[in-house]
Structure formats: C-alpha cells, structure tokens
Amino acid sequence: MTHTIFIDGEAGTTGLEIRERLEARPDLKLILLGDRRRDADARREALNGADAVILCLPDDAAREAVSMIDNPSVKVIDASTAYRVAPGWAYGFPEMDAGQRALIARSQFVSNPGCYPTGFIALVRPLVKAGLVPANYPVTVNAVSGYSGGGKAMIAEFEAAPKDSGGATTAYRAYGLTLRHKHVPEMTKHTGLSRDVLFTPAVGNYRQGMLVEVPLHLAALPETPSVERLHGALVEAYDGQRFVEVADLEETEAMTGIEPQGLNGTNRLRLHVFGDRNGEQARLVALLDNLGKGASGAAVQNLNIMLGLDEATGLV
C-alpha cells in the first residue's frame, strides 16, 4: 500500500530534511505543489487529500493550516511549537512513556517535540517519575545547538562571509536571555515538573548537533540519590528502545569530552550520567542531532507509527 504525504513548508530547513528522508521510499508518494504552494485552493486540496500531512511552518501558519483541514481521515504532524502543550494533541516522543506509541498511533493530531526538549525530557522525566527529582524541584537546563536550529535566517547569518555581508564571526552565542524561551512550557509539562525550568540555550558556530545538560546537586535532593540510581532509572526507562540509548557508567568515567556533532545524520539520542568522586554532584548530558531526533527524524518516526509501519523505516 502506498501512502500519500503532503509536507506543508517543504522549502524550510526541517521540511527539506523530511523530504530527503521520504522521497526515495517506495511506500510513500509525496504531494508536491511546486509553484502552486501559495495557491490557497491547491494547498487546501493537498491538506485534505493526503493520508498524512507534516506541517513545517511558523506557529501562526501552522494554526492556519490546521484550520483548513476538515477531513477527519488526514493524520497531522505539526513541527512547530503551536500545539506542544495543547489539549487534543498527542506529544510525539514515542519513547517518553510506556503508552506513548499507542497514543501517537491512534491520534489524528501529533505535535513533534522540540530539539532541546527532546534531550531534556529524556533525561529528567524518568527521574521525576521515579521520585528521585521532586516535581517542584528548581531544575536548570543548559544547552548548545548548531545554528541550523535557528532556521533560514540564522543559517544565512552564520554561513555568510563576514567580509561581504556581516556574517557571524562569534564561536558561541548565549540567547534566550529574558528567560521566556518558547520551549519552557513544553519542557516543564512533559517532564511532570510543577515549577518552570530555568533554560539557558546557546548556539555554536557549527551547522548541526546539540548537547543538552542538566546539573544536579545530589545532596539537595530528598533522598540524596547516587549516580548509580540516576543511571539505573534512565536504563530502566529506555530498555529495549531502538533510538534512545544510555551510555554505560564505565564508559562515561573514561570520557574526557563529548562532541555535539557526534550523532549527526541519525535519529539517535544518547544519554550520559556523569558524577564527581564524592558522589555530591551529577551532570546529565543528552547528545542528539537537532535536525534528526530533534526534528526531521522524529517527524518521520511519528509518521511511521501513525501509518502503522515499522517506526525505523527510512531512518536506519
């Protein structure tokens, strides 16, 4: 059986990555509007005529697209932040909980997770669920992404020649300085936290790949959990998962650094638990491709689940 897919916003960074992953598959047929993509009637027809629609649009445009869909048979994946905490939308992180895949499979509307939240939720949700981190604990998350996470404008800035057009010369830039980043509600809700996380994002002068870090003072936690208990909770949560893995403690103890581009081009997410020798502090680190498991790869994984296909199709 061949499924028809319409990518609304295929010319954007995420849309192009998704199209690349889908267009060679014999089990899928892409609906391509070409020069007609700004034709409202053609777009409405595509949105309602496909088996599945993937929205790669800014938030307001995504909401507009959803309002145009009146065919209850069309499955919708939205890659924007518009619906990540909205009622009636399944959160598209299949590994997040035991019943999440089934929820995604039976839902018409699925919101694709953000790249930073994917790493953060993967690290923290199991610890909150296990009672090792209280729901009201003041959690901080520090993260750095390649500039492709900022979309076309940031890509153009960083890839432009500085002498010609004022392109970026900085090696590293902190942003989100008002502490009102749009990912905070998503990060807070889907970890089970009751207090907003303190999120400090940054962008590096490289194209893609990211590190998401959560530092913890173990003695400040109610049970003063050991690094081994934190690690064990993550191992238990992701046992048997194809795309999420937890590094062995023996491996992390021997590491002297982590390269943020280490999983580029994959749909994998790798979690690490580091601890100091006195057992007083822990440093949780997630490694992923912000355009892979953090965006396009995750969308393809969700699409496969919603269509009843092997979720790794086109991703391995």
Automatic annotation (TrEMBL):
Biological process annotations from GO: L-arginine biosynthetic process
EC numbers for this chain: 1.2.1.38
Keywords from the named record: Amino-acid biosynthesis, Arginine biosynthesis, Cytoplasm, NADP, Oxidoreductase
Pfam entry (one): Semialdhyde_dh
Example GO molecular function: NAD binding
Enzyme class: oxidoreductase
CDD domains reported for this sequence: AGPR_2_C
Subcellular location(s) of the protein: Cytoplasm
Coiled coil: none
Catalytically driven reaction(s): N-acetyl-L-glutamate 5-semialdehyde + phosphate + NADP(+) = N-acetyl-L-glutamyl 5-phosphate + NADPH + H(+)
Pathway participation: Amino-acid biosynthesis; L-arginine biosynthesis; N(2)-acetyl-L-ornithine from L-glutamate: step 3/4
Keyword Heme: no
Catalytic residues (UniProt): 115
GO cellular component: cytoplasm
Domain Semialdehyde dehydrogenase NAD-binding: 4-104
Family per similarity comment: Belongs to the NAGSA dehydrogenase family. Type 2 subfamily.
Annotated function: Catalyzes the NADPH-dependent reduction of N-acetyl-5-glutamyl phosphate to yield N-acetyl-L-glutamate 5-semialdehyde.
Protein name, as recorded: N-acetyl-gamma-glutamyl-phosphate reductase
Organism: Brevundimonas vesicularis (Pseudomonas vesicularis)
Gene that this sequence comes from: argC
